[in-house]
Design brief:
8-stranded mixed beta sheet; Rossmann fold; 34% helix; alpha/beta; 8 helices; single chain; 3-stranded antiparallel beta sheet
Length: 307
């Protein structure tokens, strides 16, 4: 297995393998790139995205086996049962079982946005299964004021009850979905790439695959002390890559970035020009890949030296 600290590949995107497993009674699907004996990486996408969000970045991670999961309720994966929710820690048991199904003792977690938050919780709680953590424009959610706990619980419960009665959203065409997704700040190319796994064709157009309950506010959110404990508990090497025009524009995220320097024991931080979905555009993705491959090469050097 050879890990290069730089990347020169330009032929993007590369055709992936399509995988699926039955885990805890749910069908989980994924896209995979790279040799099966490559450096093991599990990739976790952001909120309302899907595995295709890694179709530009993953082929650039030469020497890696990148398995990008459609998290439950997203892409081609099953929705959770009617009595279940989509809190950021709910995916962790299934992710651990996917790692096991790959025959991996551990792996590097690569997460974007919400996927970065899930990956951070996983790395903090179950470090024996995580060799390292790479987060892309994300780390932890905004801390919640304890005094708002009951109000948040009420909002989550009431909204979940309302959304359960709604029909799944339909679009007249793929173009309709692409145009609507563009209104939320992504380029046409990014929206079209996400559409490949976000939509299911029906007799009268296209149905959105995402579970609408993902739109519901979480009934329970983490407070500042819990977030600090999670970051202090990270015992694996961490690489944070932030987009210049991404979440760091928000004051609470800028504070989190500063705090992480003191709270995370083994932290490497990088900044790349671009917006929140910078890993889905060719030039930023190539720069991100360089940071990730350098980071992984360092892990391998330290691992071999220790051995």
């Amino acid at each position: 297995m050879e890990i290069s600290g730089t990347t020169k590949r330009k032929d993007l995107p590369s055709a992936p393998e399509h995988l699926n497993w039955i885990v805890d009674g749910l069908n989980l699907t994924a896209m995979a790139w790279g040799p099966t004996d490559g450096f093991p990486v599990i990739a976790l996408h952001g909120w309302l995205d899907n595995a295709a969000s890694f179709a530009v970045l993953a082929p650039l991670l030469s020497g890696c086996r990148v398995v990008a999961i459609d998290l439950t309720g997203h892409g081609h994966s099953d929705h959770r049962s009617d009595d279940a929710a989509y809190l950021i820690w709910d995916d962790i048991p299934q992710i651990l079982k996917v790692i096991e199904r790959q025959g991996w003792k551990d792996c590097t977690i690569l997460g974007h946005s919400r996927g970065a938050m899930i990956g951070t919780l996983l790395a903090a709680a179950m470090p024996e299964h995580v060799r390292a953590l790479v987060t892309l424009d994300g780390l932890m959610p905004e801390p919640h004021d304890d005094g708002e706990f009951v109000h948040q619980l009420r909002d989550g419960l009431r909204y979940a009850a309302r959304i359960a009665t709604r029909a799944q959203r339909h679009f007249s065409s793929v173009e309709d979905y692409v145009e609507r997704r563009q209104r939320y700040g992504v380029s046409r190319e990014i929206a079209a790439l996400l559409a490949t796994r976000a939509l299911e064709e029906t007799a009268d157009g296209y149905r959105l695959r995402n579970d609408q309950r993902l739109q519901s506010p979480s009934a329970v959110k983490l407070n500042a002390q819990q977030i600090e404990v999670v970051l202090r508990s990270l015992s694996v090497p961490v690489l944070n890559v932030w987009a210049t025009e991404g979440l760091v524009k928000r004051e609470w995220v800028a504070d989190l970035v500063d705090a992480s320097e003191a709270l995370i024991g083994d932290l490497t931080r990088a900044t790349v020009e671009g917006h929140h979905h910078f890993h889905m555009e060719r030039e930023p993705a190539a720069e991100i890949a360089g940071h990730v491959l350098d980071f992984i090469a360092g892990l391998e050097t330290n691992r071999n030296g220790a051995g």
